[in-house]
Amino acid sequence: MPKFPSEGSAARVLVVDDEPEIVAFVRELLKSRGYEVLGTSDSSSVSAHLHSFHPDVCVLDYRMPHHSGADLLDIIKEKDPKTEVIFLTAQDEAALAVDLMKRGAMDYLLKPVEINQLLLSIDRALEHRHLLIENEEYRVHLEELVLEKTKALNEALTSLSRVHSATLDALSMALDYRDQSTSGHSRRVADLTAGVASSMGIKDEALVQVEHGALLHDVGKLKIPDSILLKPGKLTDEEWKKMRRHPEYGYDFLRKIEFLKDAAEIVYSHHEKFDGTGYPRKLRGEEIPLGARIFMVVDTVDAMVYERPYNIPVSFQAAADEIRRCSGTQFDPGVVEATIAYLGGHLPPHLR
Question: Is the dihedral angle over the CA atoms 187, 188, 189, 192 positive or is it negative?
Fold first, then answer.
């Protein structure tokens, strides 16, 4: 008994021809070979049969009243593109055959059809349908597998990201304590810098890199001797020259860490000035990474409004006025107002 392999039951064949004698002949022939067969001479009933009978293969006449074989081909393929269609026709037209095959027909047989030829064509059609279904099942399985693996990878990356974040936070806190900064300075300016960057349209991994760069902006100071970093008085020219190398030291440290390569550029550039008079590379304008240009405004305001060992805090308005005064020289005019506006809405109320 012919089987449709993916279902393990007799293959179903729908026979449609406006000549009842042909329908009866083909139906009895295929039933004798073990197929489950439904035959009709009414082409207008095919849509209903497709929904109730669910054929694997349709054997169609080409010229019929109500619906032509070409019309039925479109109806069948719209219902299930994997249903195979074989045409029986008295028309020996190569162009017609090519057109039907392009539109999805499996075969095109001339009447009077040879029995063995018809049986062979149905076997090929069933085999082709089986391959289509197997490929579809494989594709669905592959997509499910990809989704499963992607979910597992995302969970692993999220876990790794949490580890990274915790490690970076601990490092930034250590830097704050060593530099005698206000507790939480690095995390605070990182959050504010990332907030400004997000409001300006920076997102996804680029935003993460901006946050990390701001968080670790002073990591290069680990290489600065305590005698210079913690010196209570004014630095000598030689000491100042060493101090000014900390962006370079920080860059050298971070650029070797794959997930911090872009953040390293912000660390390298956080003491540059918009007019090119900063250090260490004297970058000018948009040569300075956008994240660093935002950070410079945030960091300067933070240093002015919070109490530090080396300064008396000023009001946020005074800090904002100073930033505007230095717009175009020290700071990028393109980020100044957006940054001031964001800080005005996100600094603690007592500092605004």
Answer: positive
